[in-house]
Specification:
- This protein has a single domain, classed as Rossmann fold, CATH 3.40.50.
- It is 46% helix and 14% strand.
- It has 127 residues and is of the alpha/beta class.
- It contains six helices and five strands.
């Protein structure tokens, strides 16, 4: 199974692991499962830092260190991910989340998220 961490899950994993559900915590500890963080998540974090919605370091080394500690690979955005957006009904209007949903669907990944709105889509989730 391939795990794609949404933005909250990634932030909880690196800053507040106690906020992760036991299912997500166990999945992240399972060495047989691959862990992925999308460039979409990293972009969302940086944009939120810049506008003052997140008080976290803006240094790339901080996130690279945590990605390495999680054993996570960065998932780039490809055209096929964007093309899947057209198939998604407008149940959720957050562009970052919609692109994460599309990536998870196209790459056959399980999206680790606590967001109830995301669960309304045809995408495998875990929380």
């Amino acid at each position: 199974m391939k795990l794609l961490l949404d933005t909250h899950t990634f932030l909880f994993a690196i800053n507040e692991p106690e906020r992760l559900s036991s299912s997500v915590r166990n999945a992240l500890l399972n060495e047989e499962l691959s862990r992925w963080v999308s460039v979409v998540t990293l972009s969302e974090i940086i944009l939120k830092i810049q506008v003052g919605k997140l008080n976290l370091p803006a240094e790339p080394a901080y996130y690279q260190k945590h990605l390495s500690e999680l054993g996570a690979t960065v998932l780039p955005v490809e055209a096929r991910h964007s093309f899947d957006l057209i198939r998604l009904p407008l149940l959720h209007k957050d562009p970052f989340d919609r692109l994460l949903i599309a990536q998870a669907r196209v790459e056959d990944m399980t999206l680790l998220t606590r967001d109830e709105s995301i669960r309304r889509y045809t995408v495998t989730t875990l929380w």
